[in-house]
Design goal:
The structure is a single chain. This protein is of the alpha+beta class. It folds into two domains: about 35 residues; about 100 residues, Beta Barrel (Lipocalin). Helices cover about 20% and strands about 35% of the residues. It contains two helices and nine strands, in the order ααβββββββββ. Strand 4 and strand 5 form a beta hairpin. Helix 1 packs across helix 2. It is elongated. It starts with a helix and ends with a strand.
Length: about 140
Amino acid sequence: MFALKLIYHYLLNHTMKAKFILSVLCIVIMSASCSKDNDSDTPENDIIIGTWGIFEYLEEDGSTNAVDPRLSENQITFLSDGTLNSDRLDDDLNWENVGNGTYELTAEEETTEGEFIVFELLINDVLKTEYGNGEATFFEKVRE
């Protein structure tokens, strides 16, 4: 509180200097508050870009099946242009980061309006997709 009173009295007694100092201070504060563009939200820099391999299936009854994520038939590749490559999927798919570690996959030519697959980033190198019946598939990142 004392510091504020001291600044107030200084500004009252040194009007021209105070205006200059306040102007410089405002410019510095405004410059500091303007951040550069955050490139982490652009597809080119998204953490999901790379090849992911299925390492486990969670079945409807709660049992799990481990698989080898290094086999190409168990892999999907998220590309920086927002598309997806996979031997497992016939459709041409696009992916989108919808925020909070959630990704949506949609077919380029949707057959059913609003149909999409949701991937959830659990930790940096684990993705999960759930199906309405309690089944889930877990992926780990195998290549950048």
